[in-house]
Amino acid sequence: MDLLDKAITGENLSAHELSKLYEYDIFTLGKAADTIRKKKYTNKVFFNMNRHINPSNICADVCKFCAFSASRKNPNPYEMTIDEILAQTISSYQRGAKEVHIVSAHNPNYSYEWYIELFSTIKKNVPDIHLKAMTAAEVDYLDRKFGIGYQKVLEDMAKAGVDSMPGGGAEIFDEKIRKHICNGKVSSQKWIQIHQYWHSLGKMSNCTMLFGHIENREHRIDHMLRIKNAQQDPQIVEAKNGGFNAFIPLLYQKQNNYLKVEDFPSGQEILKTISIARIILQNVPHIKAYWATLSMNLALVAQEFGADDMDGTIEAEAIQSAGGAKSKSGMGKDDMVYQIKNAGFRAIERDSLYNELQEW
Ligand code: V47
Q1: Contact yes or no for 154/139 (Cβ under 8 A)
Q2: pTM of whole model > 0.90?
């Protein structure tokens, strides 16, 4: 068996060995990934109607890659109130959004109770909206700041109505790279422990990987392998009773930050990374080609290379657009549907847990 066959059958290989997958040509890798993808989802492409809300950009941490947090490069600090966040949630819900995705900078001015009140207020007023909130990095920040233990933070989030957790804050798990790009942020080990505890509560989450900066191919594979090993039992995942739902390779946006990276990965390198993710992470149901970092066109091409999801309409995007992405105002549903169909796929609106809602 050659390396690709071994990878497809899930043979136990090291990150170093698997990094040689990049030496295959893009079409061979793409075909292998597409076969896995088509078996699961035929030619469906998923998207959802969602709204991103980022309550504040005032951050106690300094991640070198971040252009969103208020800093010398982006000196416009803001802080939203619960009422403002609720008003945005209600108006998005009235426009058809089925999910709010709420993640914030680590703002030292917000109390612990503020977060819990925020979530319970949203759930009380808009019970039908799916509340996806809090990266593991935020959970870790609250744990450290208030000394309450991440388990309690997660239990309180669940009680207050948080339905699922987004995959942010994972960056790159390799400890040396992590120290360079986001020293002081949640450790890789704790990021995984937080998600696993959340999963043990019967809840789903996503997992991300920030790539295209100073990491190398082996670091990416190591990251994927740590996720593969942290994933729940397939039956629990299938029943949506806990586990990672989607893997999201986030392409690094290089403007307005302190990480001096001039080189940008080629389309080929990006598509190979997505294909390899589909091949290695067969125990994670979905691979999301997040259009906000990839651009709409590359995200659509990625659907031929292992991805099956685009993320959603977003409405307002602040993190990637601060770094140069063209995603500030989200994307209309009609546009999303047109583009997916024009690329030759079936456009499937999903809910946050990937239940199919409607084919457009
Ligand atoms: O963790 C920060 C990343 C993440 C930059 O779970 C950057 O469905 C690129 O996690 N270039 C937050 N990326 C966003 C996120 C996410 C997005 C969409 C869907 C889901 C989901 C999760 O954004 C951070 C960080 O890795 N990020 N700066 C940058 N310059």
Answers
A1: yes
A2: yes
